[in-house]
């Protein structure tokens, strides 16, 4: 037992802090050392953890070594191991030594920089880091603080989407009047993330005014300007008001890319807000060979990407850039007296960024520290090498699939996401082959030797392999290919 009252009353004693932090770091180092040995996805039954833990909190505190032992015995075995080098599901959630160090500094300093006065260095570092990232991914200057734009670090794309939708809504309603909200229309593709539909509802756009525009294999499952134009013109003819258009660079299901320039020109012609969602593939834009995917970004109103996916930055961290900070802050700002800081600086006022007005919540962590440490520790060259390594692994896997007559690649592998399935043996065999692919995915995941997820496109069940873990090496991808081949044979797939 710990000395509960004393421990709580001295909860930031420097010696205790150092000793217990070292214990946690040692614990995590052991976890990373062994994570490859664990089944990637556990066989954990619902309610299993509750049966192992007490149903009331302890009255007296316990020592850290006791707590860590319980984490190891009860929590770790029931985790899906996102940092496993054999985790290929969803999109990766990157972690790194620098990301962890930055998170420790963020958490340890534990400031709340909602206004500049609340912590000047934190606000200024965030503005600097956002300009650094904007330059690194090749954004037009109009999104940088140095050229009148600016950026903010959110927790997720979901928040960025809600904030930009609110800004677009208020910009439109300033012309239409509040009653015009029932006429506003939002456009996205059938490959866009579901957060856009949720965000549109949250800002008051009627469900019936959300347009999901179909894509096809002919366009690589990206939007076409013609399909969007047709939907927009039909709405205009019905006296509705086009509000917001999402262009995605690297969709969740297939890694598809929408034509940013074509959609930007269309959005400009109809006064729509254009948002470029590069949550996953934005990290690849640091490589010049991928920057053509955001050609036309100067026509956008906002751009977002998530360093916590593929940029070695521990959860959570989302970059949102806007061309007009005033459009964002006019929708989100509040000015309660208790947040006003009476100083000579506040009297001057001009040019001061208060990040509370760039987000939904008031409180916020010092995320800029985390991203800054990653950039300082690995640099642009290191990060480009990191991204390219995963792209090379994904292309190897794609080529292996193409060389095996049982499989087909469903969509081109543009970044590090491979989408594939077992082929139908004959025409009209789609239902049977969907069942075969489901069994294949279940068998791969049940083995514990890899973890993947799925998608459905054109009515077809598709397996997704998202390469991008910090600890993933080519041998893990090659081992996974052997696993997929073996399990395909087990479920009854034969060469044509």
Automatic annotation (TrEMBL):
Keywords, sorted A to Z: Decarboxylase, Lyase, Pyridoxal phosphate
The record lists the organism as: Hordeum vulgare subsp. vulgare
Q: Name the Gene Ontology molecular function terms of this record.
A: carboxy-lyase activity; pyridoxal phosphate binding
Give the protein name, as stated in the record.
Uncharacterized protein
Q: Which GO BP terms, alphabetically?
A: amino acid metabolic process; carboxylic acid metabolic process
Annotated InterPro entries: Aromatic_deC, PyrdxlP-dep_de-COase, PyrdxlP-dep_Trfase, PyrdxlP-dep_Trfase_major, PyrdxlP-dep_Trfase_small
GO annotations of cellular component type: cytoplasm
Q: Which cofactor does it need?
A: pyridoxal 5'-phosphate
Which residues in this protein are found as N6-(pyridoxal phosphate)lysine?
309
Domain of life, source organism? Eukaryota
Recorded family membership: Belongs to the group II decarboxylase family.
């Amino acid at each position: 037992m710990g000395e509960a009252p004393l421990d709580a009353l001295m909860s930031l004693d420097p010696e205790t802090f150092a000793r217990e932090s070292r214990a946690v770091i040692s614990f995590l180092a052991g976890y990373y050392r062994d994570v490859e040995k664990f089944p990637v996805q556990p066989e954990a039954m619902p309610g299993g953890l509750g049966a192992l833990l007490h149903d009331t909190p302890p009255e007296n505190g316990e020592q850290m070594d006791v707590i860590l032992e319980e984490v190891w015995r009860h929590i770790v075995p029931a985790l899906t191991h996102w940092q496993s080098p054999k985790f290929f599901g969803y999109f990766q959630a990157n972690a790194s030594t620098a990301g962890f160090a930055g998170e420790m500094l963020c958490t340890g300093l534990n400031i709340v920089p909602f206004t500049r006065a609340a912590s000047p260095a934190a606000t200024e570092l965030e503005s600097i880091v956002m300009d650094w990232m904007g330059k690194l991914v090749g954004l037009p200057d109009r999104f940088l603080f140095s050229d009148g734009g600016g950026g903010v670090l959110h927790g997720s794309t979901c928040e960025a989407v809600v904030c930009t939708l609110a800004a677009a809504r208020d910009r439109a309603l300033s012309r239409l009047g509040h009653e015009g909200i029932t006429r506003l229309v939002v456009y996205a593709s059938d490959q866009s993330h579901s957060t856009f539909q949720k965000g549109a509802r949250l800002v008051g756009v009627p469900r019936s005014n959300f347009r999901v525009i179909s894509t096809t294999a002919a366009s690589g499952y990206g939007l076409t300007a013609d399909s969007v134009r047709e939907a927009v013109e039909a709405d205009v003819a019905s006296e509705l008001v086009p509000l917001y258009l999402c262009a995605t660079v690297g969709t969740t299901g297939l890694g598809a890319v929408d034509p940013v320039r074509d959609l930007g020109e269309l959005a400009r012609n109809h006064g729509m807000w254009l948002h470029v969602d590069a949550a996953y593939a934005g990290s690849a834009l640091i490589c010049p060979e991928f920057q053509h995917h955001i050609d036309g970004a100067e026509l956008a109103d906002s751009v977002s990407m998530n360093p916590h996916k593929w940029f070695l930055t521990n959860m959570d961290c989302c970059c949102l850039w806007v061309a007009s900070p005033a459009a964002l802050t006019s929708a989100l700002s509040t000015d309660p007296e208790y947040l006003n800081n009476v100083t000579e600086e506040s009297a001057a006022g001009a040019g001061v960024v208060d990040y509370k007005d760039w987000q939904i919540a008031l409180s916020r962590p010092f995320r800029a520290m985390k991203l800054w440490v990653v950039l300082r520790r690995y640099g642009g060259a290191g990060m480009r090498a990191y991204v390219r390594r995963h792209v090379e692994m994904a292309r190897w896997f794609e080529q292996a699939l193409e060389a095996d007559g049982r499989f087909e690649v469903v969509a081109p592998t543009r970044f590090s996401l491979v989408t594939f399935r077992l082929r139908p043996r004959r025409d009209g065999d789609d239902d049977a082959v969907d069942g075969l692919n489901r069994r294949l995915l279940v068998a791969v995941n049940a083995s514990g030797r890899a973890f993947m997820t799925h998608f459905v496109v054109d009515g077809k069940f598709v397996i997704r392999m998202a390469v991008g873990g910090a600890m993933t090496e080519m041998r893990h991808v090659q081992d996974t290919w052997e696993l997929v081949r073996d399990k395909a044979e087990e479920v009854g797939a034969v060469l044509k």
